[in-house]
Specification:
This protein is mainly beta. The protein is built from 8 helices and 35 strands. It has a 16-stranded antiparallel β-sheet with strand order 12-13-14-15-16-20-21-25-26-27-28-31-32-33-34-35, with no helix packed on it. Helix 1 packs across helix 2.
C-alpha cells in the first residue's frame, strides 16, 4: 500500500516506490508479465509489496490534505509482442489521483539510439508533468511503453517529491539486431530472401512490432512459393548479441491416397461398397510429384492436378487434405477421382481444299485396360483418296522416369499427291502403257497423226512396227499413290530422369517401313505419267513423260530411320504470344532392294513470338480498373528450310503453297523442289469474343531445285518456284481448334486466293 498521510507532526519525507516490471522471456518467445521489484528485492510471481509514502502536509496542495490513496497489489499481463492488447479493466470505484511533477526515462544513457528510444517511451505515455493520474492510468502507460516493442523490461518507480510525485521510468532496450536464423535448417527459404527482408533492421535496436511485420513478409513469401500451410513464428530466442531465432512449420505430406468417386462425390455405391475405377491407381499416382515426407506445396499440387486433367481420363479431381492424428504438421492428400468415358465411336463429314469432301469414322479407347493406352481405328474416305489407320500409343511407358512415350501404327492409304497436281496448269495424269525408244517425241497409239499415219491397238504392236519411235497409250486418270506400311516412334523430354521437370528440349526416334505403288482410280499400277496440257496433236516430247515412282517401278519400298529434336519456350501451346520454337529432323532412307531408294531428308524450322499491344479492339484489351487484361496478340516470325540428298522419288519432293505454306497459292502450286525455304511474318490480334484477326506476308522458294526432282514435275506444270504472298484472315475459335478463313494475293498482284484452314499456320 502507498499512503499519502496528512500528519502535521512529521516533517521528514520518506522515499517509497512502487514498480511494475515487464520481462520478455527470450527462450520461450512468449510475452511475460511486468514484475514489481521494490527496493531491489526479488518478489514472487507478479505481486507488488506494500510501501508507505508519507508526504508533509505543508508541502502539498490543500487538495491533498487528509487524502489517503491505497495502491493495491497489481498483476500486469502484457499482450503478446506481435499484437499488443491491453486487458480490459474491471469497473472499480473512482480512484483518487496523484499529481505528477516530473517524468524521467532511465536505463538508456549512452545507447546509440538513445533519442529514438526516449521519444518512443515518452510518446507511448499519456502521463505528463502536471497531470493527475490514478494507479490504473499508470498501469496503462506501463503497458503502452512495453507495447512499443523496443524494450525487454519496463518498470515505473514513483518517487515522492515536495510538490507531488516524480516518475522514474526504468527501461531495458532490446539488443541490436545482428542476424536472423530460421529453424529448421531445411526451411526451403533462400538465404537471400532472409537478407533482403531484414537487411534494413540489422545494426538497429530490435523492435518486436517491426519483427512481426517482417515475419508477415516471410509468411507471404512462403505463400507465394506455394507453401500455403507454412507458419512462421517467433522469436523463439533472442541472444544478447542480437541473434534472433524464428521457427517455421511448413507442413509435411504423410502420404497420397487415391480413391474413385461418383459425380456426387460419394466413394461408395448403392450397396455401400467402395467404388472401383477402371484406371490403375498407379496411372494416377505417377502424375503426382509430391511424395511422402516432402513439404506440401499448393502450386506443385495444382500442376499435378492439371497433369491429371491433361490425360483426358478424368472429368473431375477433388482434393482433400486430411490432418494426421498424433502428428502435428503432417497431412494426407486424398485424391477423389471421377472417371469419364474413354471409349468412343464417332463420325463426321469434312472438307479440305487438297482432299475435297471427305467422311470419317473412328472407333477408339483412350484408356485401354485402365493403363492409359490409346487404341484407335480410323477410316477416312473422300473425293481424292482414303485411309485406314490402326494406331496404338502409350503416353508414358510404365516405370520410365524420362516420361518416354511410344506410338505405333499400321496404315493403308490411297491419295492423289499434290506433287502431280496444279490448280491452274493441268495435272500429270496416268498412262495405260508406255514404251521409250529414246526418240524426240512420243506418240499416242489412239491418234493416227503419227509416223505410221494409223492407230494401234496397243503399245507393243506400235513399238514392233516402229521401233525408233516412242509410243504411249493415254488413260488420263489422276495419278494416285497407294501406301501400305507401319511405323514405330519413341519420344522423350530431356529431363534428366525427372518426369515432372519442365524442359524445353525433346527428342524423337522412329522407324518407318512402307510399300508405295503408283495407281489409277481403279487401283491398277501406273508407273508413268504425262502432263495433260502438253499433249499436242497426239504427241509430246519424250522427256516430258515422267516416272511417277523411283526407277519407274511398279512398287517402291521405303525404309527409314528418323531422328528429330524440338526446343520450345512458348508461353502457350495453343495461342502463344511469346517465346521460341525450334525443330530439326533428319530421316535416312535405306535401300533394301532394287527399287528401294537411298536418300536423306533434312528439315528445320524456327519460330519467334514477340508480345505487342498495337490494336485494342477486344474488350479484354481495355480492362476496367481492377480487371485483368486479356489481350493475347503477338508479332510472329517463322523460317523453314529443308533439302533431300540422294535418290529421290518424285512423290517425296518438297511442296510449296497451301494453307500451311505460302498461302497465296494452292497446295503445291508454288513449287515442287528438292530443297526449299519459307519465311512468314504474321501479326495476330483479338477482335471480340471467339474471333481474332491476322495480317501476314509469306514468302517461299525452291532455290532453283525443281529441275533436280526426277521427272521435273514442277516445271512441267509451270510452277513458278518462288513467290510472295500478303494476306489477311479471321480466326474463329471452335471446339476442334482454330478455324482460319484467309485471303491472300500472289506476288502483290490482284489475283487473290481464299483459303480455309484448321489450326494456326504455326
Amino acid at each position: 500500500m502507498v499512503a499519502f498521510s496528512s500528519s502535521r507532526t512529521k516533517n521528514a519525507v520518506r522515499r517509497g516506490a512502487v514498480g511494475f516490471a515487464l520481462a520478455l522471456p527470450l527462450i520461450s518467445g512468449m510475452p511475460g508479465k511486468a514484475q514489481a521489484q521494490p527496493d531491489g528485492s526479488e518478489p514472487e510471481g507478479s505481486q507488488v509489496e506494500e510501501v508507505q509514502v508519507e508526504v508533509e502536509t505543508d508541502a502539498v496542495g490543500a487538495d491533498l490534505i487528509e487524502e489517503e490513496i491505497d495502491v493495491e497489489r497489481i498483476e500486469v499481463t502484457p499482450a503478446p509482442a506481435a499484437t499488443p492488447v491491453v486487458e480490459p479493466i474491471e469497473e472499480v470505484p473512482e480512484q483518487p489521483r496523484v499529481l505528477i511533477t516530473e517524468v524521467i526515462i532511465e536505463g538508456i544513457d549512452g545507447h546509440p539510439e538513445q533519442e529514438r528510444l526516449e521519444l518512443a517511451a515518452y510518446d507511448a505515455m499519456q502521463v505528463r508533468p502536471g497531470s493527475r493520474v490514478t494507479r490504473d492510468e499508470l498501469k496503462l502507460d506501463l503497458d503502452a511503453i512495453y507495447a512499443t516493442g523496443w524494450f525487454s523490461d519496463v518498470r515505473i518507480e514513483p518517487i515522492n517529491g515536495p510538490l507531488g510525485v516524480q516518475l522514474a521510468v526504468l527501461v531495458v532496450p532490446n539488443p541490436v539486431m545482428t542476424k536472423v536464423l530460421i529453424e529448421p535448417e531445411d526451411n526451403k527459404i533462400e538465404p537471400q530472401v532472409i537478407e533482403d527482408t531484414f537487411s534494413s533492421d540489422y545494426g538497429r535496436t530490435l523492435n518486436l512490432n517491426e519483427l512481426q511485420l517482417r515475419i508477415k513478409e516471410l509468411q507471404k513469401w512462403y505463400a507465394d512459393q506455394g507453401y500455403s500451410l507454412a507458419r512462421v513464428s517467433g522469436p523463439t530466442r533472442v541472444s544478447p548479441d542480437g541473434v534472433v531465432q524464428l521457427k517455421v512449420l511448413i507442413g509435411t505430406v504423410a502420404g497420397v491416397e487415391v480413391k474413385f468417386i461418383n459425380k456426387e462425390g460419394e466413394d461408395t455405391n448403392e450397396k455401400g461398397e467402395p467404388i472401383k475405377g477402371k484406371t490403375k491407381p498407379w496411372v494416377v499416382s505417377r502424375e503426382i510429384s509430391i511424395k511422402p515426407g516432402e513439404p506440401f506445396n499448393r502450386t506443385q499440387l495444382e500442376n499435378d492436378i492439371r497433369r491429371l486433367y491433361g490425360t483426358s481420363l478424368f472429368s473431375d479431381v477433388k482434393v482433400t487434405l486430411q490432418p494426421v492424428t498424433g502428428e502435428p504438421g503432417f497431412i494426407t492428400i486424398v485424391l477423389g477421382i471421377v472417371e469419364q468415358s474413354t471409349g468412343s465411336l464417332s463420325g463426321g463429314l469434312g472438307y479440305s481444299q487438297s482432299q475435297g469432301v471427305f467422311g470419317q469414322v473412328q472407333l477408339s479407347d483412350s484408356n485401354l485396360f485402365g493403363r492409359a493406352w490409346d487404341l484407335a481405328l480410323n477410316f477416312t474416305y473422300g473425293q481424292f483418296g482414303g485411309l485406314a489407320n490402326l494406331t496404338f500409343s502409350d503416353p508414358w511407358i510404365k516405370g520410365d522416369n524420362h516420361r518416354t512415350s511410344f506410338r505405333t501404327s499400321i496404315f493403308l492409304s490411297r491419295e492423289v499427291p499434290q506433287v502431280f497436281q496444279s490448280q491452274n496448269d493441268g495435272d500429270i495424269v496416268s498412262l495405260l502403257d508406255y514404251e521409250n525408244n529414246n526418240s524426240e517425241y512420243a506418240y499416242s497409239i489412239s491418234n493416227d497423226d503419227n509416223p505410221a499415219d494409223s492407230k494401234f491397238s496397243n503399245v507393243d504392236k506400235a513399238g514392233k512396227e516402229f521401233p525408233s519411235t516412242s509410243w504411249f497409250d493415254f488413260e488420263g486418270d489422276s495419278i494416285a499413290l497407294e501406301r501400305i506400311g507401319g511405323n514405330v516412334i519413341f519420344a522423350r523430354p530431356l529431363n534428366g530422369g525427372d518426369p515432372f521437370k519442365k524442359v524445353p528440349w525433346q527428342v524423337l526416334a522412329g522407324l518407318n517401313l512402307q510399300a508405295v505403288r503408283p495407281i489409277n482410280y481403279a487401283g491398277d499400277t501406273r508407273p508413268y505419267g504425262i502432263p495433260s496440257r502438253r499433249i499436242k496433236d497426239g504427241r509430246i516430247k519424250n522427256d516430258e513423260i515422267i516416272c511417277t515412282a523411283f526407277n519407274c517401278a511398279d512398287q517402291n519400298t521405303l525404309a527409314s530411320v528418323r531422328f528429330a529434336t524440338t526446343y520450345s519456350t512458348l508461353n502457350d501451346g495453343r495461342n502463344p504470344t511469346s517465346g521460341n520454337f525450334f525443330s530439326f529432323g533428319t530421316e535416312q532412307y535405306l535401300s533394301i532392294g532394287e527399287n528401294s531408294p537411298t536418300f536423306n531428308r533434312i528439315r528445320t524450322s524456327y519460330t519467334h513470338f514477340i508480345p505487342v499491344k498495337w490494336l485494342k479492339l477486344a474488350k479484354g484489351c481495355r480492362p476496367k480498373e481492377g480487371e485483368p487484361e486479356n489481350c493475347p496478340q503477338a508479332l510472329a516470325f517463322q523460317i523453314k528450310a529443308g533439302t533431300v540428298l540422294g535418290q529421290l522419288p518424285p512423290y517425296e519432293a518438297f511442296c510449296l503453297g497451301g494453307s500451311n505454306s505460302v498461302r497465296g497459292w494452292f497446295d503445291c502450286d508454288l513449287a515442287v523442289g528438292r530443297s526449299f525455304g519459307e519465311a512468314t511474318i504474321e501479326y495476330r490480334f483479338p477482335i471480340f469474343s471467339i474471333f481474332a484477326g491476322e495480317v501476314f506476308i509469306d514468302a517461299g522458294t525452291d532455290f532453283g531445285s525443281q529441275a533436280d526432282v526426277p521427272g521435273n514435275p514442277g516445271q512441267l506444270l509451270d510452277k513458278p518456284g518462288s513467290g510472295f504472298s500478303p494476306g489477311v484472315g479471321v480466326i474463329v475459335t471452335t471446339p476442334v481448334g482454330p478455324l482460319r478463313l484467309e485471303v491472300a494475293s500472289q506476288d502483290f498482284t490482284g489475283e487473290w486466293r481464299f483459303n480455309l484452314g484448321v489450326g494456326w499456320k504455326f
